[in-house]
Design goal:
CATH class of the largest domain: Mainly Alpha
Largest sheet: none
Low-confidence stretches: none
Strand content: under 5%
Helix content: over 70%
Order of helices and strands: HHHHHHHHH
Shape: elongated
């Protein structure tokens, strides 16, 4: 495929995912609606994504990557373990509050996405644990894994049902996670 054709295909894919996200949030997600909004044939969409589930899977993947990139960037801005977790949890809470699609994925709001929340939680856990192991190699690997799992699950829980302001939630989750990450002997 030529470079210009590759760019055009990538742009179509990006545009299709942007419009699909809008349609999903508006409750009108379907291939005919998507094709009409993009001004392309349904066959073009089927060639790119396979089917409606292919579009949904691509949306989940993109939303997950963007979400995790934000969390990892927040972790990376801090050198202190506690401050890193406060920043990461706060970033996750802000992103979910501002992103209707992400919030729907995390709350299991739409069946078309399947186990979107599970995929996001597992990916967040794995990526956070990997980052922590690289940044703080002196921490016990098992404790880091448990800390990352706890952070992911607590953060999603607070996205679904926030009981306090985001800053307070971030501080509380970070405190618990750091205690777990440091392990029993540290």
């Amino acid at each position: 495929m030529r470079p210009m054709a590759r760019r055009a295909r990538a742009q179509l894919r990006a545009d299709a995912l942007d419009v699909a996200a809008e349609l999903f949030v508006g409750g009108r997600f379907g291939m005919p609606e998507l094709a009409a909004r993009l001004g392309v044939s349904r066959q073009t969409l089927y060639s790119e994504f396979g089917d409606r589930q292919g579009v949904a899977s691509a949306l989940v993947l993109r939303a997950t990557e963007r979400f995790l990139d934000g969390i990892e960037a927040a972790l990376a801005r801090e050198r202190d373990l506690h401050a890193a977790w406060v920043a990461a949890v706060a970033a996750a809470l802000r992103r979910a509050a501002d992103d209707s699609l992400l919030k729907a994925l995390l709350t299991g709001d739409q069946a078309v996405f399947g186990s979107g929340a599970e995929e996001i939680v597992v990916a967040a856990r794995d990526r956070a644990a990997g980052y922590l192991r690289r940044q703080w190699p002196e921490l016990d690997a098992e404790s880091v894994g448990l800390a990352a799992e706890t952070a992911a699950r607590l953060t999603v829980s607070h996205i679904v049902l926030p009981l306090a302001p985001p800053e307070r939630i971030a501080e509380q989750v970070a405190t618990a996670v750091v205690r777990i990450a440091r392990g029993p002997g540290l």
